[in-house]
Write a structure and sequence with these properties.
By secondary structure, this protein is an alpha+beta fold. The protein has 23 helices and 22 strands. Helix content is 47%, strand content 26%.
Length: 688
């Protein structure tokens, strides 16, 4: 047994050696792999540190023999030190805090560093330094790290300046327009530190080496505020999965271009994400086979800029509209401070008074000098009384402007108190044309009264002086026909019949003319009229004609309207008479009456009716009809569409109908085609 053991010992040693060698190689491989990863991580972090806008320092405490901290040594600083302090990295590293940054010691930074060492907790401070004669603000985070302190500083000087500028701007806007108060709160939201989203995307290439996507290799926690997903949830995913909008808005192409050209890009983009609407300013830098993206949220700034632009546009538009409105309306506005006795005019007020801005100074004395002598005493008395009583006023004066133009003006004023001062504000309106038009209207009214008197005189002449000879002619024709007609030849009898028909037609024409002329004077106070009773009377008057023609008339239950009874009966009588008269040969007339109530928005706007609901009465027949283009002509005086020997009449019937409908503030229309009958529609307003 001992011999066998002695034989196996070298083999065991060999196995053990090989096993140890394998472990050593595995460990070496692992260490080498970790070293490479560490190098990539260090390169990535170094890239961030060198490309960030922040200045990063690492301080190590310096103690005395008793172990008390007396200073700090700068062991690391990034390249921002040159930009922010004017010192190079070489001139800074290795120096004590009091030597490298003496301005910080003046602000007690050494005490803050001591507090961080003692408490082991980070401290954030906004500190103003005097660096090389320039005042600069920094937001600095002091964090404990191993045996020292990391200080990350971001210059916020511009933000502080912006804060002052925005406050001044808000104050100015508030005095211009109360509506712009919201702009102030929006701008205030911009004040404070801008935070950044840091991301690193690794290129994903296809077999040909072309970039087809990017993998999210790193993102800080700020990303959660934007996308709603934490950095842990998105790292390792493709941007095509997590941020598909980057392909639509062109950013994917920007990333590719940065990698291909190694040139950094800076741009602004608008994003509509599930978590909200954002604007970001993005800076993209190539890093290895990927891109480092630093994104600054500028949403508040964009919103404030938009709000300010819109407010400015609204204010400019309001001023422009006001000036245009004053110019178009022929008026100007003024404001008078009773305490300081200062008077201010709008632009158009200067123009109306013939004054020049910057040359002529507004005053009550100057305005009083423009008032014509005939109105001056009234002007002085009214102004004194209104200023004493502080009551609203409205007066009319005749003036002569500084350019010599004579005008009639209306002066209106209202009193109010603001900041313990009394003001009178109002408008000055040029009413010269109105006064002139009023004089013209008065003249036209006098002419109309004279014309009406002449028309009344004409009516008396027609009703008596013309009808009386006509009645005698008809009487003598009647007697001659009874006594001597049989002694006339056939031609003579025919001529006598024509004379009698012409006389009868002349009498009907005179009666219709009188009826038409009197319509305007016969508009009595309108009452509620039952259309069913009105049509009963009309049918009773036309009963012989209806029986003679065997007419078929359909009239359903009809509503009530407001109107003058005898005029409405005449209206319906004329329309129904036409329907009976213009029937087809050897066919009984068929007449249908119907009604409906229409809202104003359903009425043809070309009718120019007063806004109201309307009763629409339709009277349709199946007679001979007429050409559609004659639908308006039939309502004109003496308008006949057929030969007078084919159908009796004077051409006044429908003209009278139109006059009656107009007296009732309504409208009448006609639609027809030859051989297809006629459809008359009458619109009556419904009155309460």
């Amino acid at each position: 047994a001992y011999k066998s053991a002695m034989t196996l010992t070298p083999i065991n040693i060999l196995y053990l050696a090989l096993f140890a060698l394998g472990i050593l190689m595995f460990a070496f491989s692992k260490i080498n792999s970790d070293r490479k990863k560490l190098a990539v991580t260090r390169s990535f972090l170094q890239n961030i540190l060198e490309n960030t806008d922040n200045m990063v320092n690492y301080f190590v405490p310096v103690t005395n023999d008793q172990g008390k901290i007396i200073d700090f040594t700068v062991t690391y600083v990034n390249g921002q030190v040159k930009k922010l302090t004017g010192q190079s990295i070489e001139d800074t590293i290795g120096k004590k805090l009091s030597e490298a940054y003496p301005f910080s010691v003046e602000k007690g930074v050494n005490v803050l560093l001591g507090d961080v060492i003692t408490s082991g907790k980070a401290i954030i401070r906004e500190i103003k330094y005097n660096i090389n004669g320039s005042e600069k603000w920094f937001l600095t985070t002091f964090s404990p790290m191993e045996n020292g302190i990391t200080a990350t500083s971001r210059e916020i000087t511009e933000s502080k300046k912006a804060e002052t500028v925005l406050k001044e701007l808000n104050a100015k806007l508030e005095t211009q327009n109360l509506e712009l108060e919201r702009t102030g709160s929006i701008l205030q939201n911009m004040l404070g530190s801008f935070q950044y989203v840091f991301s690193y995307f690794e290129a994903v290439r296809d077999s040909s080496g072309s970039i087809i996507d990017f993998k999210i290799a790193y993102s800080n926690d700020k990303i959660k505020e934007v996308t709603g997903h934490s950095s842990r949830e998105i790292i390792g995913k493709l941007i095509s999965e997590e941020y598909p909008h980057l392909f639509d808005n062109g950013e994917f192409e920007i990333y590719k271009d940065v990698i291909d050209t190694s040139e950094a890009k800076e741009y602004e983009r608008e994003y509509n994400l599930k978590s909200g609407h954002f604007f970001f300013c993005n800076e993209v830098v190539k890093l290895n086979d990927g891109v480092s993206v630093v994104s600054q949220d500028i949403t508040l700034r964009k919103a404030a800029e938009k709000e300010l632009d819109e407010a400015t546009e609204r204010l400019a538009l309001q001023n422009a509209v006001l000036n245009d409105a004053e110019s178009v309306a022929g008026l100007g506005s003024y404001s008078y401070n009773l305490d300081t006795e200062t008077l201010t005019y709008s632009d158009n007020c200067y123009r109306l008074l013939g004054m020049v801005q910057g040359v002529d100074t507004p005053s009550l004395a100057l305005l009083s000098s423009m008032v014509l002598p005939e109105d001056k005493e009234k002007f002085i008395r009214n102004v004194a009384r209104s200023l004493k009583d502080k009551k609203n006023v409205r007066n009319v004066y005749r003036i002569k402007t500084l350019t010599g133009a004579q005008k009639d003006i209306s002066l209106e004023g209202h009193f109010f108190i603001k900041n313990d001062e009394s003001f009178m504000v109002g408008i000055l309106r040029d009413i010269t044309k109105e006064v002139s038009n009023e004089l013209i209207v008065q003249k036209r009214n006098r002419e109309l009264e004279r014309s009406n008197a002449e028309l009344e005189s004409f009516n008396r002449v027609v009703s008596h002086d013309l009808q009386e000879p006509l009645r005698k002619i008809q009487m003598f024709i009647s007697r001659f026909s009874e006594m001597d007609k049989e002694h006339l030849s056939e031609r003579g009898q025919k001529y006598l019949d024509k004379i009698e028909a012409s006389a009868n037609r002349m009498q009907l024409l005179i009666r219709n003319l009188l009826s038409y002329a009197r319509l305007a004077d016969e508009v009595d106070s309108q009452l509620t009229i039952d259309l069913n009773l009105a049509f009963e009377k009309v049918l009773d008057d036309l009963s012989e004609k209806i029986e003679e023609t065997h007419a078929k008339i359909t009239i359903p239950e009809l509503p009530n309207i407001h109107g003058t009874e005898f005029q409405l009966e005449q209206l319906f009588n004329n329309i129904m008479s036409n329907a009976l008269k213009y029937k087809k040969h050897d066919e009984p007339p068929i007449i249908t009456v119907s009604s409906e109530i229409l809202p104003f928005n359903k009425i043809d706007k070309s009718f120019n009716l007063t806004p109201s609901k309307y009763v629409v009465l339709t009277i349709a027949d199946e007679g001979v009809g007429f050409e559609p283009e004659q639908s308006e002509n039939i309502f004109r005086l003496f308008q006949r569409l057929h030969q007078k020997n084919a159908y009796e009449g004077t051409g006044l019937g429908l003209a009278i109908c139109k006059k009656i409908v107009e007296n009732h503030e309504g409208h009448i229309t006609a639609q027809s085609e030859p051989g297809k009958g006629t459809r008359i529609q009458v619109y009556f307003p419904i009155k309460n």
